[in-house]
Design goal:
alpha/beta, Rossmann fold, eleven-stranded mixed beta sheet, about 25% helix, globular, binds hypoxanthine
């Protein structure tokens, strides 16, 4: 069985229930990943974990070396990646505290290194990205939710913004008109890079705030902290149920 990669998002810089066996800093042709990749056993299965924002949460979304991160996973034999992400909720069913496994995304980012194919020696490649997420991994997460008794919104569209600032209310209205149900800053170029390397990739989003203009008032960081804790706790339980289903 291939190794499972887990990318921890905001609030998930470590997995408490991971029995760590190795930590390694992987060098890649694109520089260093966000930190050492941590190998360990989770529910009897070997997984490799990486905190996307670094272990001290020091790297903002627009500065993450996405190419090095995904390359490093491949280098260590990972074929499937579950990527956790804190997001804002846009549609009514995406209230703070909810987990979601989106089935589509829209990329609004504009200043990130987004491909391994830069022309010249690295070549030119146009990957098919009709369905950005692995359907089989989405099903695994949904099933894991059922097993662990965790409510998960199945589907929706993840709008990926550049950040690091949060959106204006008008921007969120535009995202809603585009069909986005959640908004975050990290699914791209991560998902596309995984596809370029033929890795199965899925986002497990947890909603930590109402997106700008959707809640009662302005976005409160204290509330985000609170929902971050709720979300990461649920996420840990969910992830522990995944290995048995692979
Ligand atoms: N917008 C963008 N990214 C986010 C948000 C948001 O409201 N919440 C958490 N990540």
């Amino acid at each position: 069985m291939s190794r499972l990669g887990i990318i921890g998002g905001s609030g998930l810089a470590k997995l408490d229930n991971l029995e760590i066996t190795k930590r390694e800093m992987v060098q890649t042709p694109f520089g260093e990943p966000s930190g050492p990749l941590i190998t360990g056993m989770l529910s009897g299965h070997e997984v490799i974990f990486l905190a996307r924002h670094g272990y001290g949460h020091t790297i903002p979304p627009h500065k993450i070396n996405y190419r090095a991160n995904i390359w490093a996973f491949q280098e260590l034999g990972v074929k499937k990646i579950i990527a956790a992400a804190a997001v804002g909720g846009i549609s009514n069913n995406m209230a703070p505290g909810r987990l979601a496994v989106p089935e589509q995304l829209i990329d609004y980012t504009y200043r990130r290194e987004g491909s391994y194919f830069e022309g010249g020696e690295s070549g030119i490649e146009h990957i098919d990205f009709t369905f950005p997420y692995s359907q089989s991994l989405r099903e695994v997460l949904i099933l894991a939710g059922e097993k662990a008794n965790i409510d998960i919104a199945q589907g929706g569209i993840y709008g990926v913004t550049e950040g690091p600032r949060l959106e204006t209310a008008a921007e969120v209205n535009k995202l809603a008109r585009d069909g986005c149900t959640i908004v975050g800053m990290t699914a791209m170029p991560e998902a596309a890079l995984a596809r370029e390397l033929n890795l199965d990739y899925v986002t497990c989003a947890f909603v930590v705030n109402w997106a700008a203009g959707r809640g009662d008032s302005i976005i409160d960081m204290k509330d985000i902290e609170k929902y971050m804790q709720v979300g990461t706790q649920q996420l840990r339980q969910l992830l522990a149920a995944v290995p048995a289903l692979l």
